[in-house]
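Example record

The entry below shows one chain as it appears in the dataset: sequence first, then structure tokens.
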Amino acid sequence: MYIANSRTWYLERLIRLAAGIFVLGSALLGLIVHPGFFYFTGFVGIMLVIFALTGFCPMSIILYALGARERCRC
């Protein structure tokens, strides 16, 4: 069983946190306010797939500029 280190807030962990907040928030807004918010949910999902396949993620660029650093520079 794998459990991630939760002592530090490294870049990859912050990306997962932001993606989770965006998905939950847009899903709730899609149910409560307007179904158009589901497009944002899909966009976040697509960006997560692109990040997994290529390593490119606009959120990582923003977080890195704000001072977040990678967990491991292997």
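Notes for this example: The radius of gyration is 14 Å. The mean pLDDT is 90.
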